[in-house]
Design the sequence.
């Protein structure tokens, strides 16, 4: 069955199965031949199909080193869809050194190329790589990955290791962060309620609960804490929106960090 003809029930089953995943689950999903490339990275096909060019353009606007020549780029949690393939093509064309970090199973699904290195590891459990890149990396990409790092409890070690690798003038994009506070603001708004009704086809408002614990979810406090940690370590850091054309731009956001 092709990706586009999978019935909705199959997507629903898949989400029920893979809604709450971590690094080891992704490793198993990468090896599961029944899943599409997008399902292997935890998305129903409809969330990414036909949209990865726009996502790549949004990323490239935020990481100017991708446009340069012979830069050092690292993609942490590269996955196996068209997005890392676009980064590989760009890196070969611009003679970058591109380091892809993910499980061996995930990286095995990506093509090789001149200047492309694959490091099979759960970042930051790769001290030799991190030590070899101290202060040398021009662009770090962490796209749709940080929520899993946060849920697995490795937030600060992960962030500090990313910061330590950044060269002067370099940038880190921690992108596509699902911020549950932002999601609640959206679904409590008139626009969000109308969006929910249109999406479900029912005349019902979404249920939004404030003032309660949200285990394993990133909220405004986490986002602001990340920004403060970077700034206190001597980096500039901002919360930036995604381009409005992106599939989850109304409830996800990016953190952009630069080393002065
Ligand atoms: C949702 S996918 C995103 C893939 C890709 N960045 C994209 O946006 O298309 C998350 C990926 O991050 C990887 N991952 C999760 N935690 C990681 C970690 N600590 N170090 C390296 N990779 C990680 C998973 O194996 C998976 O491939």
Sequence:
């Amino acid at each position: 069955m092709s990706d586009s003809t999978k019935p909705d029930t199959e997507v629903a089953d898949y989400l029920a199965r893979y809604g709450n995943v971590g690094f080891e689950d992704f490793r198993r999903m990468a090896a599961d031949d029944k899943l599409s490339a997008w399902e292997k990275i935890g998305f129903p096909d409809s969330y990414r199909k036909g949209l990865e060019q726009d996502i790549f353009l949004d990323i490239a606007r935020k990481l100017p080193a991708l446009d340069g020549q012979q830069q050092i780029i690292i993609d942490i949690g590269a996955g196996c869809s068209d997005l890392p393939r676009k980064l590989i093509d760009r890196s070969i064309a611009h003679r970058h050194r591109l380091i892809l970090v993910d499980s061996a199973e995930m990286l095995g699904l990506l093509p090789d190329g001149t200047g492309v290195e694959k490091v099979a590891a759960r970042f930051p459990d790769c001290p030799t790589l991190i030590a070899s890149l101290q202060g040398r990396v021009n662009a770090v990409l962490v796209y749709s990955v940080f929520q899993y790092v946060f849920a697995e409890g490795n937030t600060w070690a992960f962030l500090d290791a990313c910061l330590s690798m950044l060269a002067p003038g370099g940038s880190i994009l921690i992108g596509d962060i699902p911020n549950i506070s932002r999601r609640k603001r959206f679904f409590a708004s008139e626009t969000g309620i109308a969006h929910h009704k249109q999406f479900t086809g029912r005349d019902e408002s979404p249920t939004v609960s404030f003032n309660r614990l949200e285990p394993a979810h990133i909220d405004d406090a986490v986002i602001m804490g990340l920004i403060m940690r970077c700034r206190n370590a001597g980096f500039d850091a901002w919360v930036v929106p995604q381009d409005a054309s992106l599939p989850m731009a109304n409830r996800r956001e990016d953190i952009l960090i630069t080393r002065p």
